[in-house]
């Protein structure tokens, strides 16, 4: 694969800061080398900066950092579209999850194929500007990319993702308004109990088969808080009871086997909250699994520090 690393140090999607350090933490954890070792060509285009836009009016007083988030959305959208049009697989190095307002719409704008989205997250991120109580826009991208109303001031979504093409796995923290919207939608979603009862591979394989049958492109959006906080502490919105390290890798290995992934977000890493870089390293290892690393390819533990 021809992979493009796109630094997106978005930190406007919530109040507690630190995700802006994410792209450099992935670089420090040697993401590019891990992917090159798998035989991929890797280009790091450095970090994007947000467009400067005027602040639109917003009826919800809780919403904050609106202009900055719109500016990021535009810049990330362009970068994602360009990478796809150049025949590359973009990996968006976040940055908080509001970066997906731009990444998902950008990659979807670059293809005629049906676009599918796999959302690995403790949260559904299905708020609009009007339903969010926190005012944190990292809780909104899935509603935006499906073309829902309630995003005044944002670029119009010209290539909305059909709800049937979206699968959320890992849910364990959904706000009331999101729940109502989700239940009234065609999005498929699997909470942690369903994972426990069925095994994560059963749920994911079902979705991957649909992507394959439709001949679709697959965007994977991996939120650090999909994982259990014991394994991945470097995130502001920890929720106990998340995916294990092996469940995370199994998802990524199934994605690699499918050959369907065309773009990837690594979001919500807050290196300020990390412990000796272990969450950044885990995210790098998961990205490597998604791009073909297998259990037996992993460096022998005793030989690494
Ligand atoms: N990308 C995330 N970590 N999102 C968390 C969102 C939490 C909550 N639903 C909110 O709107 O504030
Ligand atoms: Mn999220
Ligand atoms: Mn989350």
Automatic annotation (TrEMBL):
InterPro entries: Arginase, Ureohydrolase, Ureohydrolase_dom_sf, Ureohydrolase_Mn_BS. GO terms for molecular function: arginase activity. It catalyses: L-arginine + H2O = urea + L-ornithine. Pathway: Nitrogen metabolism; urea cycle; L-ornithine and urea from L-arginine: step 1/1. It is an enzyme of class 3 (hydrolase). PROSITE patterns: ARGINASE_1, ARGINASE_2. Binds 2 manganese ions per subunit. Its cofactor is Mn(2+). Its EC number is 3.5.3.1. It comes from the Bacteria. Belongs to the arginase family. This is Arginase.
